[in-house]
């Protein structure tokens, strides 16, 4: 359930009108969200994915808008206890833009939590290129086997910085092309006699492909038409896909809350 | 169906055919058991009704001109269901597959080739026999394809493809640099099908459940519809098709962008390696594109992955490239040794490039290397990477 701390943050979110767009819709959803004690959220995603394209036609303004939206999503994600937030862009992000995004998010989180003692840390990253990943893995994977330990090694890579939310920025090349790239790397490893083709099982692939990006429980498609925009195919196996057709008329926040509610209601039978 | 209903449907189909018709439609036929419970007819009756719906929807799709219909009949995970339910499904599949390939008027009329996608070895022996027979009997049909995913999961498919490609590398049939997005795409079960245009899931669930993850996650229109599969009719399909037609141009546009991007990526040289200046790089790119376009037969539409594999076949038959390759065996062997030793570098077209430069920028050699690469990939995909229950076919 929503903890008292989260509750407090949520209230802060809604009653700071200069930071958040207030519309009757948000107030309505907020009431529904907070007063509905009989049916609280049954579960919350640990990894939320959002497909959010940059409006290329608006030039620099498009990039700024995108950054602002990501910062806002990061605030809400931290407030609702989400651990990983992956954002699917429609093009690759420039390293400088990544830095400025990190600054923007740090700033907005500081603003958001200025009443509190602990300001949560947010780490913004992209996926490591496969060639580097391979070298890194040769060091790490020998010692670590379980998913959590692989995570730790990823964390160590970023200078051991403590973070509560892991923001991963994805581009279309991180989807299908990256999967092909992974198989190519496997092929090279096979040539070096490090692996054999019979070792390639679903478990092996899972370890390789989910180490750096876990499977999201929920993906929100912020797009007029529903498609998955090259989100890494391996990782969306059981992901709940939330999409609302009339995107233009619904505020982002409402969409976010509705998606969480929809996820809380879903019932997965895993084939049974 | 009443006569009026049929007439109306005929009119609607004609109207839809004025717009673009999807080439490949996927269905997750979910909700048969829940429908059976809702209508109080029991699970097995639910499955049976589900099958009838599938047949009806298949007929509609064929009438519309859809080339490939892919249905999720049974997931590998479904083996976890109670044994009697699994048994019922197996019996139904056995009966209906035999019926489809032996007596079905529809299969004959539309020239449908039946493919069974998935790890067939998990099925009981008798069902396996029926599957092989159905595929064998209809493998010559090349006007349309019905893909039955049985027992299938997409992760299993991707693992299978990865294993087969890596085993090809082990056997020295392939080079790691040959593995590109389109080659991987062509090692999947859906390799002789055009890319998926629409994916429809019934029963109101909003996830893919391990179905066609690769095929449906880029440039594919996804729809979740809140009715059980046996309740799904042409009239529920109609608005989906209309929505698809509205966005079909953007889907085609993004596919074009993907194939262009892949060609570019093949020629991409990492800046950190500082092989050359930008202008050289550009010259190389032009070179490469030229090579590419000269080696594929001129086709009016975009060279999507499946088309390029089929165009590889074209090359193979006219054998100009293979003779060109074998005439210069010395170069070939040198090239091969170079390839093998350079396991460090991952972007191997850069190696080709280096090689080309060493030989005083000889474009003819470069073309030969490229042709050889294509030859290698094609022969792998047709021979070693062959999938028994999904024979390759060139759709009309």
Question: Secondary structure elements and their pairing?
Answer:
The complex is a heterodimer of chains A (272) and B (396).
Chain A: H1 4-14, H2 24-35, E1 47-52, H3 60-79, E2 84-88, H4 95-112, E3 122-126, H5 130-140, H6 147-157, E4 165-170, H7 176-191, H8 202-210, E5 218-222, E6 240-243, H9 252-265
Parallel strand pairs in A: 1-2, 1-5, 2-4, 3-4, 5-6
Helix pairs in contact in A: 2-9, 3-4
Chain B: H1 3-16, E1 24-28, H2 32-38, H3 43-64, E2 68-72, H4 83-102, H5 105-110, E3 112-117, H6 125-138, E4 144-149, H7 154-170, H8 181-185, E5 198-201, H9 213-216, E6 221-224, H10 234-267, H11 278-295, H12 305-318, H13 320-327, H14 329-341, H15 348-358, H16 363-384
Parallel strand pairs in B: 1-2, 1-5, 2-4, 3-4, 5-6
Helix pairs in contact in B: 2-3, 3-4, 4-6, 11-16, 13-16, 15-16
Question: Which descriptors would you attach to this protein?
Answer:
A: alpha/beta, Undecaprenyl pyrophosphate synthetase, 6-stranded parallel sheet, 45% helix, globular, B: 396 residues, 16 helices
Polypeptide structure, described:
Chain A: Its EC number is 2.5.1.87. Chain A: Pathway: Protein modification; protein glycosylation. Chain A: It is found in: Endoplasmic reticulum membrane. Chain A: It catalyses: n isopentenyl diphosphate + (2E,6E)-farnesyl diphosphate = a di-trans,poly-cis-polyprenyl diphosphate + n diphosphate. The complex is a heterodimer of chains A (272) and B (396). Chain A has 272 residues and is α/β, with parallel strands linked by helices. Helices cover 45% and strands 11% of the residues of chain A. In chain A, helix 2 packs parallel to helix 9 and helix 3 crosses helix 4 (95-112). Chain B contains 16 helices and 6 strands. A 6-stranded parallel beta sheet of chain B has the order 3-4-2-1-5-6. Chain B folds into 2 domains: 3-152 and 189-254, Undecaprenyl pyrophosphate synthetase; 269-384, no CATH class. Residues 269-350 of chain B have low confidence and may be disordered. The longest helix of chain B has 34 residues, at 234-267. In chain B, helix 3 (43-64) runs parallel beside helix 4 (83-102) and helix 4 runs parallel beside helix 6. The interface between A and B is large, with 51 and 57 residues.
């Amino acid at each position: 359930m929503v903890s008292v701390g989260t509750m407090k943050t949520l209230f802060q979110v809604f009653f700071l009108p200069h930071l958040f767009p207030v519309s009757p819709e948000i107030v309505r959803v907020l009431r529904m969200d907070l007063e509905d004690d009989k049916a609280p959220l049954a579960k919350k995603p640990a990894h939320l994915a959002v497909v959010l394209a940059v409006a290329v036609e608006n030039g620099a303004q498009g990039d700024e808008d995108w950054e602002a939206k990501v910062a806002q999503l990061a605030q809400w994600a931290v407030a609702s206890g989400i651990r990983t937030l992956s954002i699917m862009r429609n093009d690759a992000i420039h390293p400088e833009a990544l830095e400025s995004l990190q600054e923007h998010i740090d700033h907005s989180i500081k603003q958001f939590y200025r009443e509190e003692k602990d300001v949560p840390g947010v780490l913004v990253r992209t996926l490591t290129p496969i060639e580097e990943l391979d070298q890194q893995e040769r060091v790490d994977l020998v010692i670590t086997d379980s998913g959590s330990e692989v995570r730790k090694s990823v964390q160590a890579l970023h200078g051991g910085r403590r973070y509560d939310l892991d923001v991963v920025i994805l581009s279309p090349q991180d989807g299908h092309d990256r999967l092909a790239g992974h198989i190519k790397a496997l092929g090279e490893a096979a040539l070096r006699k490090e692996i054999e083709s019979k070792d390639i099982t679903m478990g092996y692939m899972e370890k390789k492909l989910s180490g750096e990006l876990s499977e999201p429980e929920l993906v929100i498609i912020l797009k007029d038409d529903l498609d998955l925009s090259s989100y890494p195919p391996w990782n969306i196996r059981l992901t709940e896909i939330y999409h609302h057709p009339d995107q233009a008329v619904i505020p982002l926040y409402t969409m976010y809350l509705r998606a969480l509610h929809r996820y809380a209601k879903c019932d997965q039978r895993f084939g049974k | 169906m009443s006569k009026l209903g049929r007439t109306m449907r005929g009119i609607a189909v004609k109207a839809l055919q004025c717009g673009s018709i999807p080439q490949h439609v996927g269905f997750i036929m979910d909700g048969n058991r829940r429908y059976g419970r809702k209508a109080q007819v029991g699970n097995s009756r639910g499955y049976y009704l589900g099958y009838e719906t599938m047949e009806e929807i298949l007929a509609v799709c064929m009438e519309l001109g859809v080339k490939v219909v892919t249905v999720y009949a049974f997931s590998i995970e479904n083996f976890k269901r109670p044994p009697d339910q699994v048994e019922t499904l197996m019996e139904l599949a056995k009966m209906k597959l035999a019926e489809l390939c032996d007596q079905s008027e529809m299969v004959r009329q539309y020239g449908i080739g039946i493919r069974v996608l998935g790890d067939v070895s998990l099925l009981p022996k008798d069902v396996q026999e029926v599957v092989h027979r159905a595929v064998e009997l209809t493998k010559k049909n090349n006007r349309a394809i019905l893909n039955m995913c049985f027992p299938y999961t997409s992760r299993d498919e991707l693992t299978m493809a990865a294993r087969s490609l890596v085993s090809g590398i082990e056997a020295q049939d392939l080079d790691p640099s040959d593995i590109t997005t389109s080659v991987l795409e062509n090692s999947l079960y859906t390799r002789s099908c055009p890319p998926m245009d629409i994916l429809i899931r019934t029963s109101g669930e909003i996830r893919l459940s391990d179905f066609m993850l690769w095929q449906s996650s880029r440039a594919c229109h996804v729809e979740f519809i809140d009715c059980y599969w046996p309740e799904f009719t042409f009239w529920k399909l109609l608005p989906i098709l209309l929505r698809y037609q509205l966005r079909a141009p953007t889907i085609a546009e993004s596919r074009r962008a993907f194939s262009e991007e892949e060609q570019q990526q093949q020629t991409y040289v990492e800046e950190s390696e500082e092989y050359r200046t930008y202008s050289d790089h550009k010259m190389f790119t032009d070179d490469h594109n030229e090579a590419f376009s000269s080696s594929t037969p001129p086709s009016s539409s975009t060279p999507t992955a499946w088309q390029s594999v089929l165009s590889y076949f074209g090359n193979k038959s006219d054998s100009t490239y293979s003779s060109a390759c074998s005439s210069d065996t010395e170069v070939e062997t040198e090239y091969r040794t170079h390839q093998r030793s350079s396991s460090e570098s991952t972007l191997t077209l850069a190696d080709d490039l280096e090689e080309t430069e060493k030989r005083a920028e000889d474009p003819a050699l470069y073309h030969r290397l490229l042709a050889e690469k294509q030859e290698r990939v094609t022969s792998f995909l047709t021979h070693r990477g062959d999938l028994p229950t999904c024979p390759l076919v060139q759709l009309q």
